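FORM 7B: Structural annotation worksheet

SECTION A. Query
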Amino acid sequence: MLQLVQSLRTGEVELVGVPDPSPRENQVLVRTSFSLISPGTEQALARTAGKGLLGKALDRPDQVRQVWEKAAREGLGPTVAAVRARLEDLMTPGYSSAGVVAAVGPGVDGLTVGDRVGCVGANAACHAELAVVPAPLCFRLPETLEDRWGAFGALGAIAAHGVRLAEVEAGSVVAVIGLGLVGQLAAQLATAAGARVIGIDTDPSRVQLAGELGAVAGAPAGGDEAERAVMGASRGAGADSVVIAAAAKDGAPIELAGRLARDRAMISLVGDVRLQASRSAFFEKELQLRVSRSYGPGRYDAAYEEQGHDYPIGYVRWTERRLISYFFEEVAAGRIRLEPLLTHQFDFADAEDAYGALEEPGRMGILLRYPDGTDEPSAPAPVKPRVAPPSASARTRVALIGPGLFARSTLLPLLNSHDLDLVAVAGGSGPRALSAARQFNADRVAASTEEVLEDPDVDVVVIATRHDSHASLARDALERGKSVFLEKPLAIDQPSLDTLTPLLQAGGRLVVDFNRRLSPPALAVMAALATRSDPLQIHYRVNAGYLPEDHWLRDPLRGGGRLVGEACHFVDLCAALVGRAASSVAVSALGVGPLTLPGDSFVVILTYGDGSVATVAYVATGDPHMPKERVEIMGAGHSLVIEDFRRLRRFDKPLRLSRPVLSQDKGHAGLLAAALRFFRDGGEPPIPYEDLLATSHTCLAARELLDQGRRSPAELPRPSAR
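SECTION B. Predicted structure
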């Protein structure tokens, strides 16, 4: 299929061929009929993307601060790699479309193939011939509503939510500041609700259009005319409500709203305006300012938008879905007129020209019209030709599943440094896979993970997907005779782990990215302790960082929870330093607080058969400026400290203190190189299978203790892959 993408580096848009997507659980596949280019949002994104690094930095100082903090914590190399990976990304513009349901995934109720729907949501209702959209973000269109007007759903919901927040009532006087597409819709919605609307904009033609669509008065934003118009319509009282739909780099629209509003009025901020205003007007009139969040209650709530958990109407009258349905009904009834707001319509094949229309004066709604589905499928655009020579039998042929940020910033650059062929990239969104394939010279973007697993020209599968798919993908690849490099963890539940053991016993080749045991500091520690006969005490402190409550890593069913999903790294390194798997594990959790979420902060206590003890103190609520990891190893006459994998301190030989390095070396390069040698030449795996299984068993047992609140230790079996 064809999809419109936008370069984050240059801002340029292009039509590219990507594999057809498939709906998963609670998702719908929609064949797009129309999609709407949002003039304000998409023009702003294009202008920001088209700026150089300095311009981007000036636009987003918050992201610049994050980059500096990452560089201070992790060093220059990983930071540059992550920034480069972000800049090479292809964005998927668009968030409001209409089409016909082509397929439904498991668990979808209320929608069937052939239904006409309006769709909303960034990275879902995008400019593409086919789009996978969460079912709760698809809305069956009223029978009398034209398909093209269904593409206005997201913009209509934004306007409707802004009007609702302003508490517009029949007979009230409402000032709408900013008469772009959203402002015009807000003005019509307020008029349809029985309000007297005064439209205000710097463009006289937009003020005139608002009047033609029902506003009782209009005025330019500058000077005193806006105040005179509002005072005239309100008999000197001022506006009962003000909706700010303008975009501004300063707080001038908020200042104007304060002057227009009556005593104790409500101001709803919908547009992108800096929150700057003098206190006096707001204090003297006791004004209320509400910042509108997109489509309304339910927006950005995964349980609502992805899983379909609705809010009871008795508690939340106007949710995202109810606002969009209301908007469609108003358009179908003729109370909202969209034809006058449509200034351009392009065939999808001319989508690149449509973005040029964003710079035209007077542009408003810009629609893209798609083939009706009876035409021949669009031919995919080729991936950039390879630089590497064709694959030969002596070269390892690799495919990547899961081109996320870690894969693009770490795994793919390391793979490119080896003498191998990257034959395919699969998984994730089509544009992201295409971006990775272009940047790292892959032969193609695979249509599915199954295509990669069945490909006889793939020797090694690198899996960097979300944690809940790790075990199943690794199992499927091993069953087909592929070698597997798997980003941690190996599995997030015991049944999944059990399916892998027989495959390893049968000779399957698998390496899990427990990289820290192959980092230079860890290798130096193991060499120093190679001849020890006394037990060790290890204290591993992890300043893990806060994650929001709904983050996928915290979900045991998707990410395994933080203990299984991330702390497996630290459990594995402790075992490697001791030289054996733990014989028992105990866990103590920190109590819950305003920031301390359940299961996010804990201390794992590991005991070993030789008398060694290790503690992993994993805390999610420390100051982010503190280095993330510090490992202290004491015993057998040694005291050694690994400082965030940038320096090793040896107190037994103080004159041989290693100097700090510019970048961390957590062992990614060393482990990947060892894995590729193992896949090519055979022999012993770089991480013994018994260690992989033992680390997974330990973490799963520890999570069970954590979930049950048990502090008594659990004895651990010694797993075998022989």
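SECTION C. Observations
The two ends are 47 Å apart (CA to CA). Residues 585 and 606 are 5 Å apart (CA to CA).

SECTION D. Sign-off
Analyst initials: ____
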